[in-house]
Design goal:
The chain is built from 13 helices and seven strands. By secondary structure, it is of the alpha/beta class.
Length: 354
Amino acid sequence: MASAHHFFLYFLFLLLLLLLPSLATSAKIPAIIVFGDSTVDAGNNNVVPTILKSNFRPYGRDFVGGRPTGRFCNGRLPTDFISEAVGLPPLVPAYLDPAYGIRDFARGVCFASAGTGLDNATSDVLSVIPLWMEVELFKDYQKKLRRYVGRPKATQIINDAIYIVSIGTNDFLENYFLLVTGRYKQFTVEEFEDFLVSLAKDFLTNIYLLGARKISFAGLSAIGCLPLERTTNALKGGECIEEYNKVARDFNVKLQVMIKELCDRLPELKLRYAAVYDSLLHLIQNPAQYGIENVKEGCCATGTYEMGFLCNEDNPFTCPDADKYIFWDAFHPTEKINRLMANLTLRTSLKEFV
């Protein structure tokens, strides 16, 4: 039975890899609107006074023109692929990027900030944009949108847009388990999970009240398998930290319960859970099926602890082919994996919208 299940997963992933370039949709999706952290930040941190930036090479080396944009990747993010797949521009621009204006943002906009979390204490660690400020930027965006297209059209765009939210990893790895904010003294890990779920509920209610209706909320991935976490687990052979993976699984269960409660309570809300945990774990456990040779380290530098400024062009160890890696740096996936995750999202949590 287990082998049949694995065969099905293998077949599904191969199918998804093949289908993305030819995805088409007849649905009218006016815009993609993005909230979250570095998994979806298209460059907002470029203009934030923080050390957590990626607007320099080798970040972006496989991007159009080989230019760094502030995306924590060698190329595009899942949100970029999703936008292109539904007939919108191939990039979702960062709201704070001065190269773009409301004409661009009317079709896609990203409010995400690398290093942020559901908990305000998480954003304080590296002085990035807190989630409540992302909501304030969303309000500012709506004012500009109303001036640009008029109130009725702006309302239609806001109501019919697809919202993608990817957040939560930093709350555990940068905040709770790093012992820098005091949350570990204030909460047990189970209590902290509950605290974060309540914050997610408040955030989702807030953007619902601002007009969001079609929302995909990503669960946590196998966070204990990130290269940075494997590095800290050197005494156990650099394997995944199961304690962290269990926290991710437990949080995801609670998140799904909350999502159902919100959908039952808020009229017309279509809030869907995006399951990424099993997908990432499947890739890690079956790399050869996808032409992947390294699941433990990132491509950039030594791939064991580098991200941000430590992942730079002066490092001689950066790999020549990121497609052979799951991770680009010690924390973030390669463009190849982002493409796969985008397609998985389109075929699952976003399926009814596209």
